[in-house]
Design goal:
A seven-stranded antiparallel sheet has the order 7-8-9-13-12-11-10, covered by helices on one side. A six-stranded antiparallel sheet has the order 1-2-6-5-4-3, with helices on both faces. The protein is α+β, with helices and mostly antiparallel strands. The radius of gyration is 27 Å and the shape is elongated. It has three domains: about 60 residues, no CATH class; about 110 residues, 2-Layer Sandwich (TATA-Binding Protein); about 120 residues, Outer membrane protein assembly factor BamC (TATA-Binding Protein), CATH 3.30.310.170.
């Protein structure tokens, strides 16, 4: 006889669907097997959802758990396509953040989200698509494992590794501890949910707004115009923003052909990442000339006053005075440099 856990016979909400009372009501072997599968997987909440779905479905041939899971999968895909972001959970209660975007763009957006949430970033690696953060969980939020739990008891903070990977065109963001073990705690789930909200608002796919951090970060943003051109907005007057951009270009290893503060523009050369040839030892010692690609695209970076004179709009144009094909890459490179 299958024993029913007490919490199923006394649901907490009025709208909850009861699990069949097996001790009093005859049930089929199929229903019993289905319930046992859910119970063994600790998916009782999903079983309640399954019962609700079964009541609204009149096709007896499609009432199996397999059909229900296909329905839920289709439902999640629809939501992900609509919102671009989705939180899902596995059988262990660990929540995972799904993002419908590229790895590079997702990393940049999450970087912005962490700034906006004022979360302490210890270090990050875009090449590895990960972040190492210190997160406030309270003094009782430790892992109860080893001496590091004492650090949490003293500081109320814990170290999380936030890692991104791509599967079938979807970016998966999940949290791990210092030992690269997955984390399934309310604090970890809360962080991912906060990130999901940011990715749907201030750190979107076509526009990002920095609202956290310290000056001059708040107000820094990028957005895509109706024509599809990506532009950068700096919360500084054009003359000050010109110096900010000049410094960022040099730190990002752009080659500046010429610049004019009166016209508020830079002529820069940009090599697509991966196209730079490796320098040999003789070149690094100055005994041979560096080998560069035969063609290095030249772009004009134009600054102009924003809606208010306290902000500056930055856009990228090619030599024919048309929006540059690689303009978005240049803007994102500068945006990342200014954020950090």
């Amino acid at each position: 006889m299958l024993e029913i856990p007490p919490d199923l016979t006394t649901p907490e909400t009025i709208s909850a669907k009861r699990v069949p009372n097996i001790t009093e009501t005859p049930i089929s072997a199929q229903t019993l097997a289905e319930f046992e599968e859910f119970q063994s997987s600790q998916e009782l909440a999903k079983y309640q959802d399954y019962l609700t779905w079964r009541e609204t479905n009149n096709d007896a041939e499609s009432l199996s758990i397999t059909a229900f899971r296909e329905f839920k999968k289709s439902q999640q895909n629809t939501q992900l396509s609509r919102d671009g972001v989705l939180i899902v959970s596995d059988n262990q209660g660990r929540e995972i953040l799904l993002v419908r975007d590229t790895l590079d763009s997702s990393w940049n957006r999450i970087d912005t989200a962490l700034i906006n949430l004022n979360i302490q970033l210890l270090n990050s690696s875009k090449s590895n698509y990960d972040f190492r953060i210190s997160y406030k969980v309270g003094r009782d939020g430790g892992t109860n494992q080893g001496w590091r739990n004492w650090a949490t008891l003293l500081t109320g903070r814990i170290i999380f590794q936030l890692k991104l990977e791509e599967q079938e065109g979807i970016v998966i963001a999940s949290l791990f501890d210092r030992n690269n073990i997955t984390i399934a705690t309310p604090e970890a789930n809360s962080l991912l949910r906060q990130l999901a909200v940011q990715l749907k608002t201030f750190a979107g796919e076509d526009q990002q707004f920095v609202i956290g951090g310290i000056n001059p970060l708040p107000g820094l943003s990028l957005y895509k115009t109706t024509s599809g051109q990506t532009q950068l907005i700096i919360p500084e007057k054009p003359e000050i923003a010109w110096r900010t951009i000049n410094r960022a270009l040099r730190e990002a290893n752009f080659y500046i052909d010429k610049s004019d503060i009166d016209s508020l523009h830079f002529w820069i050369r940009y090599v697509v990442p991966g196209n730079k040839s490796n320098q040999g030892l003789l070149a690094r010692l100055g005994l041979r000339k560096n080998k560069y690609p035969e063609i290095i695209d030249q772009y004009r970076m134009q600054l102009e006053p924003g809606i208010s004179m306290e902000s500056t709009i930055v856009s990228i144009w090619n030599a024919n005075q048309q929006p540059a094909e690689k303009g978005e890459e240049v803007i994102y490179a500068i945006f990342e440099k200014l954020k950090n």
